[in-house]
């Protein structure tokens, strides 16, 4: 089982590649398996040490069950146990989640990315009991908690983390990016849960708790994992100059979408559209259109997402390896992120 200390390096979170007609409500067989295989192989080639599929960006909630099974099978067959793979299984209710988890386990996933059932808000007791029940039912499948407060309408309080660390021993990690209160959560969970941040926050986590910050995740990996991979290596090497440079480069690339990301309501409405738009603009992979009903994306936001993708491609093209850049686009453009 994938334990807290096993989670290291950079975990790529990817969109589920969609065929051109996937935006139709009556579409079937929407997963582009050719793009899926190509993307997974390229991510491993380019240094990703883990893979996370079927979260929000992966459109877990909008995939039909046949598409879900086809996609999971394709990803796990392509990975072929070369890197740990975390597969999302969140659904409207517990019975469907259990069915998905049985399939995920049978297919050989290392862990599941798991939020709460999505219809009715839960109490802390319900939330803890849910993860405890999953842990008991699937004792060999690690759980990465997906604490998306807006999606699941639950705050994931400190009381929850303290309780779930004891009640659900297979909860070994969390997709988590709020540095506030991190030390208290680590203490409350007695180090049993690895709170894994994204590439935008990992340097802050590392500064606060270097011994527990062993990994990051990046939806930006669909645009090319190189910057996030390099940042994790710089943190491991304690190379502060390289850390500062990479944080600046990543910050500059993401600058156009910061207003969306920092507005919780806006981000919740356009999360999938933003990610798919910037990924397609970067040119590293083609994830196709968003599945219904999430096609609406106002042009002002789409333009910002495309600019983010284009900037990400620039910093990847300028990266020369060994923490050096052939040029510094953020300086050439006259925009230097602090």
Q: What does this molecule look like?
A:
The chain is of the alpha/beta class and 338 residues long. It is 47% helix and 11% strand. The protein is built from 14 helices and ten strands. An eight-stranded parallel beta sheet has the order 7-6-5-4-3-2-1-8. The protein has a two-stranded antiparallel ribbon with strand order 9-10. The protein is globular.
Features:
single chain; 338 residues; alpha/beta; TIM Barrel; 8-stranded parallel beta sheet; two-stranded antiparallel sheet; 11% strand
- How many whole angstroms does the radius of gyration measure? 19 Å
CATH class: Alpha Beta
Give a short account of the largest sheet. 8 strands, parallel
Strand order of the largest sheet: 7-6-5-4-3-2-1-8
CATH homology superfamily name:
Aldolase class I
CATH architecture: Alpha-Beta Barrel
Range of strand content: 5-15%
Structural class: alpha/beta
- What's the overall geometry? globular
Number of domains: 1
Helix coverage percent: 40-55%
Average the pLDDT over all residues and give the rounded result.
96
Quote the distance from N terminus to C terminus: 40 Å
**Strand element count:** 10
Number of alpha- plus pi-helical segments = 14
Order of helices and strands: EHEHEHEHEHHEHEHEHHHHHEEH
CATH topology: TIM Barrel
């Amino acid at each position: 089982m994938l334990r807290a200390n096993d989670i290291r390096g950079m975990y790529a979170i990817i969109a589920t590649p969609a065929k051109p007609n996937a935006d139709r409500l009556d579409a079937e067989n929407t997963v582009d398996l050719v793009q899926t295989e190509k993307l997974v192989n390229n991510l491993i080639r380019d240094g990703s040490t883990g893979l996370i599929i079927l979260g929000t960006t992966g459109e877990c909630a909008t995939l039909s069950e046949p598409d879900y099974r086809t996609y999971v099978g394709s990803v796990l067959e392509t990975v072929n146990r070369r890197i740990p793979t975390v597969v999302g299984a969140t659904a409207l209710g517990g019975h469907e989640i259990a069915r998905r988890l049985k399939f995920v386990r049978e297919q050989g996933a290392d862990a599941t990315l798991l939020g709460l059932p999505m219809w009715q808000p839960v109490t802390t007791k319900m939330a803890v009991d849910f993860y405890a029940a999953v842990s008991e039912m699937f004792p060999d499948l690690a759980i990465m908690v997906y604490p998306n407060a807006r999606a699941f309408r639950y705050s994931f309080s400190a009381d929850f983390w303290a309780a779930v660390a004891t009640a659900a021993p297979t909860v070994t990690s969390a997709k988590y990016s709020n540095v506030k209160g991190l030390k208290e959560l680590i203490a409350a969970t007695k180090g049993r849960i690895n709170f894994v941040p994204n590439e935008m926050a990992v340097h802050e986590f590392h500064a606060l708790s270097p011994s527990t910050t062993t990994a990051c995740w990046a939806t930006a990996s669909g645009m090319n994992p190189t910057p996030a991979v390099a940042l994790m290596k710089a943190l491991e090497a304690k190379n502060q100059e390289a850390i500062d440079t990479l944080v600046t480069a990543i910050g500059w690339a993401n600058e156009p979408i910061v207003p969306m990301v920092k507005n919780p309501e806006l981000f919740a409405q356009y999360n999938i559209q933003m990610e798919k738009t910037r990924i397609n603009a970067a040119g590293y992979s083609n994830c196709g259109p968003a599945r219904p009903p999430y096609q609406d994306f106002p042009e002002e936001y789409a333009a910002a997402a495309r600019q983010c993708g284009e900037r990400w491609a620039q910093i990847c093209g300028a990266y020369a390896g060994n923490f050096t850049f052939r040029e510094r686009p953020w300086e050439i453009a006259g925009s230097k992120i602090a």
